[in-house]
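Appendix B. Raw example, untouched.
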Amino acid sequence: MWVLRITGLGTSYLDIESIVNGLILVERKPILRMQQEKVFLETTSAMWKEITDLTTSLQEALSPFLQENIFQSRTASSSDSTIVTAEASDGAAVGSHEVVVRQLAQAHRVASDQQASAGTALGLAGSPTINGVAVEITADMTLLEIRDTLNGAGAGVKAWVVDNTLLMESEQTGYANSISVVDDNNVLARLGVVANHALDAVVTASSEYSSSYPSSSITDGYTHSDQWGSGGGWNDATANTYPDTVDISFSAVQTVDQVRIHTLDSTTYPASQYGIRDFNLYYRATDTGTWVLLKSVSGNTGGVVTVNLDTPVNAKQLRVEVTATNGAGDYSRIIEVEAYNTQAFFKNQLQAAQDAEFDFDGLALTRSSNTFSDVIEGVTYTLEGESPTLDDGTLKTATVTVDPDTSGIRNKIEDFVDAYNDLYRRLNQLTAKGSEFQGEPSLIRVQDQVRRLVTGYVDVSPGYVYDQLALIGIRAKGGQDVASEEQGILEINSTELSEALEQDLAGVEALFSATETVYGFDGIVTRLDAVLTGLVGSDGLLPGRIDRLGDQIENVQEEIAEAEQRLEEKEEELYLKFAQLERSLSMLNYQQSWLSAQIASLPRVGFSLF
């Protein structure tokens, strides 16, 4: 607490502040000793935290040898990366394999006809099914909005627009991932994605009930029954009289293997009552040729009949001959007729879906994707291009080789050595002559223990040659020519280490990573990891020491605070006492002055002895 003090008001001429400061300075000596102790404890704690961090870094450098098992890491290389590349995972079998690529897998890609504009509503409405997913298209959608709808439908296709043309591509390659479509209301046929040969074809009928039921409407692309009676479907004019026929004339001869016939079918007019029941399907190759029967259908009660032909036909005309209906009014009623060649279903196919075809070690294989990992376990291959033809007429072979990742292993060994050296060099500095921590026994024990584990011998089982790091080119510096700070620091002989990794990788792995349960002995890293865990683990020696130092620092801090409080009280007490002394002295001085004045004021009396 800060207190305003005013001294020297009396006449004692005492320098109270100097006197009190001198006394307090003497009283402060124990606090100074405690502050020095606190600084030492903080320095010691900071030192152990530094050693803990370096030890932790060393233990982290051991992880690749234990948890990751870097000696099982592999690399894969290709003699011709334009044909095939590969990636190998840990533990993959070492070896070489020959690959000849005959054909790459590719995704199915189709396009629409070019539209007048990508931003104008197209007036198309329906729910075509793409890869089993119904996609809702409305009449107010533009080509760009149809693109966005397809991309957001989750139908396994990606769509984009180029030059007012819609393109669709399967998200996956391979023949099995071909785009499958069931067109609804001829939305995709109107766009020009699929080829409905009957769309807009010329139609003639045996009779026509009225202009509200025109035969021409059965090729206008509209397959729904909601416009029945207003130009949205055909109705013959002869009730209970059969056969009734409609003839569909193509502009040119078309190959047809599937015909879809939509009869009247709505909630008000269900096909089971108002639809066609029995009919024959004919074709002829020319406008004047002989009609040939393709199929006869009987007993139909559904709204759509799909007629699949066993053999495609080249037709100039199709005829649907109705021989019986389902009873209500006994009229023949057809909404739409569609004709397809399912082998060329898409009008604008830009790229056919196909599987990859390749020879692997002479075995002919196929895959739906150019990237696969099920040929050799642990190796992922990517076919990059078809093998070129050589001068002798054969296809070029690419060789893929899987090897141990000696470069990666070397890097991890170097990381381990660097982490060890960082710790050991700092221990050298801290225990050096003249250092604040010279002779610190705990530091010396840590350094000695780590050094012996890393540079000492490993009691290997028979059959293993390497029993110390020096045998693979990793040695500790030493001798009179080496500075004290560098004594015990590890050096790597790059040539010797490379030879060891190339000639006996299993021996190097055992030296580092062997465990008692597998090898019958513990390797350097296994032993060192156990010791380091004892040092820096959650219950380790170093965290415990740092915690104790923290407690000591806190205790000393509290003692300093208490002593400062007592000293402050002592200082106040001294100021009070000296202030009282000064007042007393001042009073005495005053009384002395008064008395002197009184004596001086007395009359002088003269006398003489003679």
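End of appendix B.
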